[in-house]
Amino acid sequence: MAKFLSKKMIMIALAVIITILLFYYILPVSIPLITAIVTALLLDPVVKLLERKFKIKRKLAVLIVFIIFMLSIGILSYFVITKVVGEGVKLVEDMPVYINQLSDIWLTYEKQLTNAAKDLPIEIVAEVSQEVQDFLNSFKNSLKEYLNIEKISAFLAYIPNYLVSFLVFLIALFMFMLDLPRIKQTIFNHLTEKTAEKVNFMTSRLSYVIFGFFKAQFLVSIIIFVVSLIGLLFIAPEVAVVMSIIIWLIDFIPLIGSIVVLAPWAMYHLLSGNLTLGTELAILAAVLLIIRRTVEPKVMGSHIGLSPLATLIAMYLGVQLLGVLGFILGPLILIVFTSAKEAGIIKLNFKI
């Protein structure tokens, strides 16, 4: 026990605690820089491939990869702005119409309920009617509160901040891509040969794992897109392509996914009396949710080298402790720990 609690182990534990505290306070304001260095690590294999294949200098290879990356973001942004945002604006504009339709639907149901409940005590019928009416009024007021001009103006006021963060991300990404070899060399200069070998093994493992993580996320989202498209081609063919793309994009957001789109859509049709369409959309939402929750841990586990159970636990604890960002950081922290253990940097060969 005394050997385990040696001075070296205490110093390592203190360093880990200080690092965690720094990350806790600095991480929220460093997301553009962290995203930039992670993206640079992901793009670095492509840069090295261009250097080897075409025998060009790193600066030119970095410039080519960076331009391709920028073009990809530009094309995706154009599509999102013209299609997804356009549909969202149309939905917001039509929201009062939908609310009025729901009110009319409830009035129809209320008449039917009154006719069907003639034999019931009038107090029960009145209480049920009042509860539902209060719910509809509360829902209507909530929509008005979140969709009013003040909320939209406040959101638009943050756009300059988002643009600044995005600009910082692009500049930092280009600089990290250029200086990545020098940064690695600077770090390795402060390490012994044995430690450098271990760190090199761990960084190689991390590069593979990070790429595998995003590859797994992409594969799961492709499955969601294909199932959504096939389902909507039978359910609502006139909007199948657009809605499948919207579901695909939203499904990238951790803990939200396709249920945010399909659940309100299904509920609206169920309330409006279109039971067949509403039920089909609800079934599709349930199928997509089951696919996401069952396939995701298995696919991620196979691509990042963790068991599905360990991946699921890491994602859950990450979300609970760090919020949405923990969905990504949870498995990555576990991979850092596992890689350090495999490299011999962390040793846990003690017995109690």
From TrEMBL:
Keywords: Membrane, Transmembrane, Transmembrane helix. It is a multi-pass membrane protein. The keyword Calcium does not apply. The chain crosses the membrane at residues 9-27, 62-81, 155-178, 208-235, 241-263, 275-293, 313-337. It is found in: Membrane. It holds the Pfam family AI-2E_transport. GO terms for cellular component: membrane. One of its GO terms (biological process) is transmembrane transport. Belongs to the autoinducer-2 exporter (AI-2E) (TC 2.A.86) family. PANTHER family: TRANSMEMBRANE PROTEIN, TRANSPORT PROTEIN YTVI-RELATED. This is Sporulation integral membrane protein YtvI. It comes from Bacillus salacetis. The lineage of its organism: Bacteria, Bacillati, Bacillota, Bacilli, Bacillales. The gene is ytvI.
